[in-house]
Specification:
Protein name: F-box domain-containing protein
Number of helices: 14
Number of strands: 19
InterPro entries: F-box-like_dom_sf, F-box_dom
Helix content: 25-40%
Radius of gyration: 27 Å
Pfam families: F-box
Shape: globular
Length: 389
């Protein structure tokens, strides 16, 4: 009998017939974005399987931008779970394989993933209103689909902007809007443990402060390594935040004014950044620390004195191991001659400090002659910008 030349029949596998456990193992090896789209667009079985096994499926790192327009509300409209109509949420995702991921995440910028659409959430009396980006602008998104998509997001960067209008609201400087926003994200998203946090007050005449519950929520962030405070110039603002955070984990701390606030500052703006903060940074001695206290704004002057700088230099030299600093920048009214006088009285020039040209000073660590600390001064009008590195 002649053998048949016909190829053997091929059977196509239908993965939808696989048992749930095997199907879940396949889902675990999919890219996070494909898992999210599968939950939103594939069969009801996939959606249910993913929804009930969120802890076992890959998540998508995301950025959440919260806008708070703090205005007078009708009784019963204001909610403490983050569903107040004055709060809007913008979610964008990160692509960790892109070279700009780390820079954008640390600066708390919106996500760099152009494949997944941005999701916009707002609440009204009728319920949650959801939209997402489209080629024609934005289009409405079903609330259940939005909820499913948000459950795949891990919030790694969080920004909260607060704008208060009206004398009564401006007088109410301390609120819990931050805690409300975190509560909503914890309910809707996978995990909320941001590595980067940006807090911003949008009113140049108002310094927004976090309440006790908000500070408690802030202290629960274990992975936070980058903090940006924008237009937060009040004396009590950074004090409460500093007490709630572990400075030993923060690699980047930036206090700054945006362009609008800088144009509003006509005279000198005294910011309550005391010299004790330098000592706290020295005690934490985070490797490659990047710290800036309104250094981009010449009119924003800290309360750091020449004695504080000398004490910081002495503290740096007494550390067991050399502390490598990326930069510590701030503005002060201290002059070069005043610093020289205070340093001479403290005996630094006799034992450790060297005066070098162009308004710079240098010292070396006793345990390593190659480890150095430099202090430079640059006159920028009404103040002088000091840099330690």
């Amino acid at each position: 009998m002649p053998t048949s030349c016909e190829p053997p029949a091929r059977h196509q596998l239908d993965i939808n017939r696989f048992p749930n456990e095997l199907l879940l193992r396949i889902i675990q090896f999919l890219p996070p974005r494909d898992v999210a789209l599968s939950a939103a667009q594939v069969s009801t079985r996939w959606r249910s399987l993913i929804k009930h096994n969120l802890a076992r499926v890959p998540r998508i790192p995301a950025h959440c931008h919260v806008y708070v327009m703090d205005i007078d509300l009708q009784p019963g409209d204001d909610q403490t779970d983050g569903r107040s109509p004055i709060m809007q949420y913008h979610f964008t995702t990160f692509n960790t394989s892109q070279p700009d991921y780390r820079a954008k995440r640390r600066a708390c910028l919106r996500g760099n993933d152009t494949f997944l659409r941005a999701i916009y959430i707002q609440h009204k009396r009728c319920g949650m209103m959801a939209e997402w980006d489209s080629q024609c602008g934005v289009q409405k998104l079903d609330a259940s689909t939005a909820t499913s998509l948000l459950s795949f997001l891990d919030i790694v960067a969080l920004r909260v902007d607060v704008l208060k209008r009206g004398r009564r609201l401006m007088a109410r400087r301390v609120d819990e809007r931050f805690a409300h926003a975190v509560a909503f994200c914890e309910e809707m998203c996978g995990t909320v443990d941001p590595k980067s946090l940006l807090l911003c007050s949008q009113n140049p005449y108002f310094s927004w402060c976090l309440g006790e519950e908000s500070l408690r929520r802030l202290s629960s962030f274990r992975s936070l390594d980058s903090l940006v405070l924008e237009n937060m110039t009040g004396a009590e603002v950074f004090g409460g935040i500093k007490a709630s955070l572990d400075l030993g984990k923060l690699k980047e701390i930036r206090m700054r004014l945006d362009a609008k606030h800088q144009s509003e500052v006509e005279n000198i703006l005294w910011v309550d950044v005391q010299g004790s903060l330098l000592i706290s940074l020295a005690e934490a001695h985070v490797r490659c620390l990047d710290f800036s206290a309104f250094s981009e704004s010449p009119a924003a002057i800290t309360a750091i004195t020449a004695a504080d700088m000398c004490q910081f230099i002495s503290a740096w030299r007494t550390l067991t191991c050399p502390w490598m600093i990326k930069s510590i920048m701030f503005n002060s009214t201290v002059t070069i001659s005043e610093f020289r006088t205070v340093a001479a009285r403290a005996g630094l020039f006799a034992t450790a400090l060297t005066d070098i040209p162009y308004c710079r000073f240098r010292t070396y660590h006793p345990s390593d002659p190659n480890a150095k600390l430099e202090l430079s001064c640059y006159g920028n009008g009404v103040s002088r910008r000091f840099t330690l590195w």
